[in-house]
Design brief:
Elements: H1 2-29, H2 32-45, H3 63-72, H4 83-93, H5 97-120, H6 130-135, H7 155-160, H8 175-193, H9 196-205, H10 207-216, H11 223-226, H12 232-235, H13 237-249, E1 267-272, E2 275-277, H14 278-285, H15 289-295, E3 303-305, E4 311-316, H16 317-325, H17 327-332, H18 335-338, E5 356-363, H19 370-377, H20 381-388, E6 400-407, E7 453-470, H21 477-483, H22 488-495, E8 507-524, H23 537-550, H24 570-579, E9 584-588, H25 595-602, H26 606-612, E10 625-629, H27 640-643
Antiparallel strand pairs: 1-4, 2-3, 5-6, 7-8, 9-10
Helix pairs in contact: 4-13, 5-8, 8-9, 9-10
Length: 654
């Protein structure tokens, strides 16, 4: 009996020592971020420990059972068993079984998302359990180092894999897009190492640490060989992953039941292309704003910047229809309150002065350039860049650009009419002047004179036209996109499709932006008639004589050259030329006349005419007036047939 008691005591002591060693091992090899993720889960979800819902204790099995179950799982990855793996399995089945229950409930929503993307990328399905140890399936989890989301991406790594991160949006928290990025990252790591245990180790501590451990081990690429050379917090990472894979498949055997999920399994999404606040959705559709945040964790400030680009909004299926029916009401609800940002401010911010402006949103299509859009909308390329914050001339297909176009303010053009002026001043004193007939003719500027035309300005108006394409047997995404002049991503976005499957007979929505010419009637005025004054030539001659008498000069007035001015009468003109001692006239060149012929008419030399008129050649143009210095003698011999006097041979006041 005494021997039996001693043996029992010794056995209990050994068991306690083993338990103590187990706890020490757990503290040494469990990554701190793993523990912190579960602590955050406990604090936010009020999830208890095994003393709460599970009072019956932990159900454990013999090592051989664990080995058999792990080996039986249909996985690509190698799921080995050893004391560290056993310790983590019993850790999940014991202290963490309530958290396992919670994650099983959340997995009803998340695991199908993970599986769809992993299947598309041809990756092992068991990788869907990686977020269990990364974030405990908490989409807004954030580590002390800044890793965020279900897959715990650092900002730089997220941007490398096309995750948008700005003041309003962080796609590391988006279940779909972050899983897409994680799948690409895991695929890249596998192409480097060719071993999934090394891949998930590198996912945790980085390729550099894994490469260093491989070098220290002498070049081995077996995870369990390089295990001692890995960072302390990474050593337990692969064992925890194996344990998580085990417990997610054999939870029933350990008496764990899935909890009720916090997200509805029937969720759907729609594309938002206008700015929208969660409170607008909450108030109109009667959805708690906390639920909207839970469904859409990627939006950091309850704001969807849809005017920047289209974003996906996730809502329960029954609320999607309600949103579509009440979309106009939702967007308009307290818009100024929830969208306080001013569009423009200050002086001349759009380069359009103080005119009234209208804004047009243009969705960039393949082939669009800044110059092309500037011509379409009648603006400049630099204005488009300023309005949309573009730092280069490169345009991304699908991006929405704001175009501000000026609308001139309506102004009343005052009626202008030039009065007809008539003056008849008869003066009999010496040196008096008389204007026999003077008239000013004009046309009112604001009237539409005869001969004016109406033209339409070439402006266009953007209009989105929706059509449908019926999928035929043998169709591919690329073929459909080419037929409809769109990209594959655009067609998927229009139809809210997240996979590559095509079903014959299905109608796909196709949206195209067409630019319809808009004729704006503009009255084009003919050029207004300029005022003209017709002055009698006798008056001009008398005025010139009066001027000469007033000029004080040492030279005799008779020595000054005289210019003959045509009168209104041919006879009077002939008499003036023959009676005066004028020595200069102007000859208007008529059809058929040459310099030689004109020189013969006036009995002067051909070279003199060219010199007097600075002619570069012996050619004269029809209608050109040529200066002629008449000879000192025989000027009276110029008869009427020779001179053909009148307006043709003498200068007239133009």
């Amino acid at each position: 009996m005494l021997k039996k008691i001693i043996f029992t005591g010794f056995f209990i002591g050994c068991s306690l020592m083993a338990a103590g060693q187990s706890n020490i091992q757990n503290e040494d090899d469990t990554p701190p971020e793993f523990e912190r993720a579960y602590e955050l889960l406990l604090s936010k979800r009020n999830i208890g420990t095994e003393q709460g819902n599970y009072a019956n204790g932990t159900i454990v099995f013999d090592d051989s059972v664990y080995i058999k179950r792990l080996y039986a799982l249909p996985t690509k990855m190698e799921l080995v068993f050893n004391p560290i793996v056993k310790q983590q399995i019993e850790y999940y089945a014991g202290r963490r079984k309530n958290q396992v229950s919670y994650m099983l409930g959340e997995g009803k929503y998340y695991f199908p998302i993970f599986e769809e993307i992993l299947d598309r990328e041809d990756l092992p399905m068991e990788l869907k359990y990686l977020p269990i140890i990364e974030s405990a399936l908490n989409p807004v989890a954030r580590s002390r180092k800044g890793a965020s989301g279900l897959w715990q991406f650092m900002a730089a790594t997220g941007k490398m894999y096309d995750l948008e991160i700005n003041s309003l949006v962080d796609e590391r928290f988006d279940p779909y897009k972050s899983t897409n990025a994680a799948a690409k990252f895991l695929k890249f790591l596998y192409s480097k190492y060719g071993d999934w245990n090394l891949v998930i180790a590198a996912y945790n501590c980085g390729s550099g640490n894994v490469d260093k451990a491989i070098r220290k081990s002498g070049g081995s690429t077996d995870y369990w060989t390089i295990y001692p050379y890995l960072p302390k917090e990474t050593r337990g990472y692969v064992p925890i992953f194996i344990a998580a894979t085990y417990i997610m498949n054999y939870y029933k055997e350990h008496g764990i039941n899935p909890a009720e999920g916090t997200k509805p399994t029937t969720m759907d999404s729609l594309m938002i292309n206008r700015n929208l606040h969660f409170q607008q959705i909450s108030d109109i559709l009667n959805i708690p704003i906390a639920d909207i945040r839970q469904y859409n964790p990627q939006f950091k400030s309850d704001m969807i910047p849809g005017e920047y680009k289209e974003y996906s909004l996730n809502l329960p299926l029954n609320k999607i229809t309600a949103f579509i029916d009440k979309s106009d009401t939702i967007y308009a609800y307290k818009y100024q309150e929830f969208m306080p940002h001013r569009k423009v401010a200050g002086l001349d911010v759009t380069g359009g002065g103080s005119s009234v402006g209208s804004v047009t949103t243009h969705r960039v299509k393949k082939g669009d350039t800044l110059g092309k859009l500037a011509n379409i909308y009648g603006v400049t390329s630099s204005q488009i860049k300023n309005w949309n914050g573009l730092s280069s001339n490169k345009l991304t297909v699908g991006r929405r650009l704001k175009i501000y176009r000026d609308i001139p303010e309506k102004t009343e053009t005052p009626s202008v009419e030039l009065a007809s002026n008539t003056a008849n001043n008869d003066k009999t004193s010496a040196g008096s002047t008389s204007i026999k007939s003077t008239s000013i003719k004009s046309t009112p500027i604001n009237s539409t004179p005869a001969g004016s035309t109406k033209t339409g300005s070439a402006k266009t108006e953007a209009k989105t036209v929706t059509s449908y394409y019926k999928v035929r047997k043998g169709d591919t995404w690329a073929g459909i996109a080419k037929k409809n002049g769109a990209t594959i991503s655009e067609i998927k976005g229009w139809n809210n499709i997240k996979n590559n499957k095509l079903t014959a007979g299905k109608n796909l929505k196709i949206q195209k932006t067409e630019y319809i010419p808009v004729e704006e009637e503009i009255v084009k005025l003919s050029e207004p008639a300029l005022p003209t004054v017709e002055i009698d030539s006798d008056f001009t001659a008398d005025l010139f004589d009066t001027y000469l008498k007033k000029v004080e000069t040492e030279r005799d007035a008779s020595s000054l050259p005289r210019i003959q001015i045509a009168s209104t009468s041919d006879t009077e003109s002939r008499e003036r030329i023959l009676s005066n001692d004028s020595k200069i006239i102007y000859h208007k060149v008529k059809i058929g006349e040459t310099i030689t012929k004109i020189a013969a008419i006036y009995k002067v030399k051909k070279k003199d005419i060219m010199s007097w008129n600075k002619l570069p050649t012996n050619m004269a143009k029809v209608g050109q007036r040529l200066l002629i210095h008449l000879p000192d003698k025989d000027s009276s011999a110029l008869d009427s047939n020779t001179l053909n006097p009148g307006r043709e041979n003498s200068i007239a006041a133009d």
